[in-house]
Design brief:
mainly alpha, MetI-like fold, two-stranded antiparallel ribbon, 11 helices, 2 strands, 1% strand, globular
Length: 282
Amino acid sequence: MRDTQRTERIAFAVLLIATIIVIIPVGLIVLLVLWRGLPALTPEFLLAMPRDGMRAGGIFPAIVGTFYLTLGTAAFAIPFGILAAIYLNEYAGQNWLTRVIEIAIINLAGVPSIVYGLFGLGLFVTFLGFGASILAGSLTLSIMTLPVIITATREALSTVPRSFREVSFSLGASRWQTVRHVVLPNAIPGILTGTILGLSRAAGETAPILFTVAAFYLPRLPQSVYDQAMALPYHIYVLSTQVPNVSVKIQYGTVLALVLMVFLLNITASVIRAKFRKRKTW
């Protein structure tokens, strides 16, 4: 008994140390970004156009471009990702084709983002003729995000007890009625988690938008989905490597703006998820 308790305490200690090792560097990075970037987050910096070759002014076009790309990614990836997950989990039989599709989805989640960028360049920019545009960038980011959304949605659907479906079927409901009114409402918290994780990754990616949408310097807002746009991840790269004599405050302020945008996405998802979890009766 004592050996078991000692082993348990050692295991907890190791887990605590591992957690601290992970949290401390992340916390230090966040504190550094806040310390150097917070003085730059003025209304003028957030709402003004860049000037003097991006050495002055603000980052408003980059914020708007990132918002448009995230919105476009959500519009394409969320419906197709959730519908694909519903089909695989609720309708598709367990056969060799289903297993191949599942393996392909898992493998696609690990493909480097630059590969998606080259794929988007070849398909959307060149072959389909969209050019470097918000539409091409959104479609590329959507394909990159789909595996995450499909996998998370399937996991969320699988957590709904099988008995819920059986009771619904016994009352005469069809399979789609069961999915629509029983399974999906109970799986929404998990679906939201996967969706926001995918969108957060898309909002912070640089390589895919580098080939499909990002503009080096564009001190105006895009007028349509066929226009190029500035984006915060690529703007951070440009400020750090391509533009000389840029204030450190501007660099860290841009980083902090991107971090806050992703943070707001996650906070919104957490609030919505908490409201849905309160409705659960199991």
